[in-house]
Design goal:
Blueprint: E1 3-7, H1 13-23, H2 30-38, E2 42-49, E3 52-62, E4 65-73, H3 82-96, E5 101-107, H4 111-119, E6 123-132, E7 137-145
Parallel strand pairs: 4-5
Antiparallel strand pairs: 1-2, 2-3, 3-4, 5-7, 6-7
Bound molecules: coenzyme A.
Coenzyme A is lined by residues 23, 71-73, 78-84, 106, 110-113, 115-116.
């Protein structure tokens, strides 16, 4: 399997909306991804397996603080290192572009995601009670600071 990680393109959106629908109870739709391409403060990467989009991650940059708002890998491609590789590339590209700190929220039960965030230097700094719906759950707030 050949894995490539590059910036999001319009042609990736259809497949990524399917990955989202499979992974989340409140998935991003095609129009949500299209909005990203229109805003210079949004930066998104896509992972391709043999040329087909199987995951994405990205952030919204506000004054040097990047809020990572979506990290996902299609179910059958999980556990192969794609999630961590995307995250590492996102951080490298962000820092090269002047991002000073990264933050994100994650369900407190999402052990796999918390594991890759911790491996990439994120630390828990707080809890947002009842942040998530479907099902309702607390969010862990994590930061990666220089
Ligand atoms: C979180 C997610 C993006 C990770 O993607 P991935 O490609 O499977 O990640 P990787 O293969 O790079 O790494 C997975 C790591 O999690 C670990 N892991 C898997 N299940 C785990 C669990 N239940 N508890 C702890 N660690 C776990 C794996 O062992 C691996 O770590 P290792 O490389 O140190 O062995 C993927 O699981 C996903 O899309 N989940 C659904 C969407 C989601 O929850 N996104 C996060 C929103 S904040």
């Amino acid at each position: 399997m050949r894995i490539e990680i590059r910036e999001l393109q319009e042609a990736d959106i259809e497949a990524l909306a399917e990955v989202e629908a499979e992974a989340f109870s409140m998935p991003w739709k095609k129009k949500d991804f299209q909005g990203l391409l229109e805003h210079s403060y949004c930066f998104y990467l896509v992972a391709l397996a043999d040329g087909h989009p199987v995951g994405c991650c990205g952030y919204t940059n506000s004054c040097g603080e990047a809020d990572i708002d979506n990290v996902v890998v299609a179910r059958q491609y999980r556990g192969c290192g794609i999630g961590q590789a995307m995250l590492r590339e996102l951080i490298a590209r962000g820092e090269a572009g002047g991002v000073e700190a990264f933050t994100l929220e994650v369900r407190v039960s999402n052990a796999a995601a918390i594991h890759i965030y911790e491996k990439e230097g994120f630390r828990a700094e707080g809890i947002r009670p009842g942040f998530y719906e479907k099902p309702r759950e607390d969010a862990m707030i994590m930061w990666r600071r220089k």
